[in-house]
């Protein structure tokens, strides 16, 4: 199970900030770290009319990519942007390539479970598999006992003994209506 933590950082000027949780001496986690960015917004100190462009540098499956992810302008409707960016692997570098900010970046930091927890889970899974194999062997033995002389199991024989029901036919009269059965008793 992953633990989820609030993530936030602020960019001012041309200084880059790097998300690298492994550099902080974090434990070895199965599932690692994942960063999800949900929002970028300008702080109240941002210069009105100034365009602020946030660039992200992150790894793709092959190599590193640098790309702008938000353009923000103070004093108008573009002072914040809602995002849903997921970075499954550290290192992620945030840079304010244009403008002076401040730009606040908000999201979630997901952390996988420690390796020790996964080792314990592996041991439990092995025990469960051993138990299931033992139960399957016992079931096979009881199924063999159920076989009777004609080679069919008790369940198959019971199914054959059940009467087969026939579906009643309904016929329509000449006007296309189903006839109604009259349950009234005749008068004497």
From TrEMBL:
InterPro entries: Nucleoplasmin, Nucleoplasmin_core_dom, Nucleoplasmin_core_dom_sf. It comes from the Eukaryota. Residues 120-139 have a biased composition (Acidic residues). Residues 120-188 are annotated as: Disordered. One of its GO terms (cellular component) is nucleoplasm. Keywords: Nucleus. Residues 6-111 form the Nucleoplasmin core domain. Residues 170-188 have a biased composition (Low complexity). It is found in: Nucleus. The keyword Nucleus applies. One of its GO terms (molecular function) is RNA binding. Coiled coil: none annotated. One of its GO terms (biological process) is chromatin remodeling. Belongs to the nucleoplasmin family. This is Nucleoplasmin core domain-containing protein. It comes from Aromia moschata.
